[in-house]
Write a structure and sequence with these properties.
Layout: H1 3-18, H2 35-42, H3 48-55, E1 69-72, E2 77-80, E3 83-85, E4 88-97, E5 103-104, E6 114-127, E7 130-143, E8 149-163, E9 173-187, E10 200-210, E11 221-229, E12 235-241, E13 247-253
Antiparallel strand pairs: 1-2, 2-4, 3-4, 4-5, 4-6, 6-7, 7-8, 8-9, 9-10, 10-11, 11-12, 12-13
Amino acid sequence: MPSRFRRPVAAYVLSVLVGGCASDAATTPAATQTLEAALAEVAHPALDLTTATFSGAGAVVPVIDPSQCQFENSAQAFVCTPVTGGWLKLDQRYVLLDAAGGKQSAFDATTTKSVSVNNAVSGQNTDQGDTFTVDGQETLDLTGLGSARHTLNGTSLTLTTFVSATNLTHPPIESTITTKITDLVIPQVPSGQPIAWPLSGTIALKTVTEYGEPLPTGGTSTTSVVTLTFNGSSVVTLSMSIAGGGVRTCRVNLAIVSGLGCP
């Protein structure tokens, strides 16, 4: 996909979706258990590159504002007012659960033990005749509320389609992007203290792109896999597949990098 199409769109959507929605809690999970702190933790900065990939356009998903969500009896879930940024629409909802897995209609600092968040992103953008479409679903489960360490797991699936206006005979470029977040253990720290990065756990991202016709390198598709392994700091081990086979491994600082890859 031409960079002239992706980069301006990503920058615009990022500024709109994040502006006015994130809070200090997004960067400093609080030790005192509150609904706001739990929802902020589900949007932990460790997930920024993951959710930017999930969005299909480089936009980081904002922290849910519970004041914008209403409990629906039929779904036993809190459904939030949709967020729009540029051409993207983000639908969010969350479910509160007690120790037995029962759904709750209100947060309780004593009995609420986990929160499950669902993000759904969709939209279509046309730039100089090129069309880019995004459709994604993400589920994030935070468990261990009320304890000194919380655990985050999740998955996402995003489909994107790019149609070129300059070559209408060219098949659409279609990408399938999947992520899997496995057992990110997040320690709780007092409010105002430096961010607590996951002590352990992994995030794996896989992208399969179908071009519809043979590439110069052979075949009609490409597959990339990136895995992040956490050990208690923003500096993580990154493993990525490389062209021709094999895996490259390096250390990257998630607090300063802007993309997934080795320097």
